[in-house]
Design brief:
Rossmann fold, alpha/beta, 7 helices
Length: 299
């Protein structure tokens, strides 16, 4: 497992019985997590989450679908936290949403550092052009990391204009407004197809596609049915001297090993490593699985 254990502004304190108790800066949240399938344990003894948690807000699911937050303190509606990515400070705006999310997936820090290390290493060896394509880019954490570590161009693509707006705010909060970042509100597959026709190439590609989605004509697609085709298509944008291709997945139907095999089949040559990504549960001494990632490098 690739464990994101370098955080200072974030931690999971306890996880169990389908919930996780997190600290985001000075704000503590309690929300559901389907991977927390074990009991809550403190001091070697099974206990209840209510006995070890005192959240500022708690998310509860509705029997009719969806859910909502219950605020239990005078917490702010949004706030900032930071992450030290190999010496580069990245700052993110956190804001709980009606979909349970907060605008950031902290476990992805393992991929930010991975990309940053490769980008800095290539630049140190004299590589002049390091262009990165970030697909399904959400609020831009990977975009920030690549820009901060020296990518000469980052193309940030997401279908949601709201997420792109938040990504721009995160860029500003991180002091990266002078970086060359192109924000594109578009269907990711259609954008890739146009980039191929334009003959564009990238040294690094990152994708984090949703488990389910809607195509440009409203058609429903499932990641397990489309993952290989998407990787195979997008690999056509790799330059002749690439650095990496990273594909994350939160689809429970696709294992880390399956993701790795897809990259091995979809991209010729190179080396693939794959595994679950996770976060430490600080008060319990375990790691919480949070999805998977497959990473391709030329060697």
């Amino acid at each position: 497992m690739f464990v994101a254990d370098k955080w200072k502004d974030y931690e999971i304190l306890y996880a169990g019985k389908g919930e996780k108790y997190e600290r985001w800066g000075n704000v503590k949240l309690l929300r559901p997590d389907p991977q927390a399938v074990w009991p809550v344990v403190e001091g070697g003894k099974v206990t209840d989450m209510d006995k070890v948690s005192s959240p500022d807000a708690r998310y509860s699911r509705s029997s009719s679908g969806g859910g909502s937050w219950t605020r239990l303190s005078q917490m702010p509606s949004s706030w900032k936290i930071s992450y030290d990515s190999l010496g580069k400070n990245l700052t993110f705006i956190i804001e709980p949403t009606s979909f349970k999310h907060t605008g950031l997936f902290p476990e992805q820090a393992v991929n930010w550092d991975f990309c940053g290390n490769l980008i800095e290493g290539a630049a140190a060896k004299g590589k002049k052009e390091i262009r990165v394509l970030n697909l399904f880019a959400y609020t831009g954490a990977a975009t920030l990391a690549c820009a901060a570590h020296g990518a000469t161009e980052v193309v940030h693509v997401d279908a949601s204009k709201g997420m792109i707006a938040r990504a721009k705010e995160n860029v500003s909060a991180s002091g990266l407004t002078d970086s060359y970042i192109r924000f594109i509100a578009d269907d990711c597959q259609k954008f890739v197809e146009r980039e191929i026709r334009r003959g564009r190439k990238y040294e690094g590609i990152i994708m984090d596609p949703p488990s389910y989605g809607r195509g440009p004509s409203g058609e429903l697609w499932k990641l397990e049915d489309s993952f290989y085709d998407l990787v195979n298509l997008t690999s056509g944008l790799l330059s002749d001297d690439p650095l990496f291709f990273i594909a994350s997945s939160y689809a429970t139907e696709i294992t880390a090993e399956a993701s790795g095999q897809i990259l091995s089949l979809g991209i010729k040559g190179g080396k693939v490593s794959a595994g679950e990504i996770g976060l430490p549960v600080s008060k319990m001494g375990i790691n919480l699985p949070c999805g998977s990632v497959a990473r391709w490098t030329p060697q």
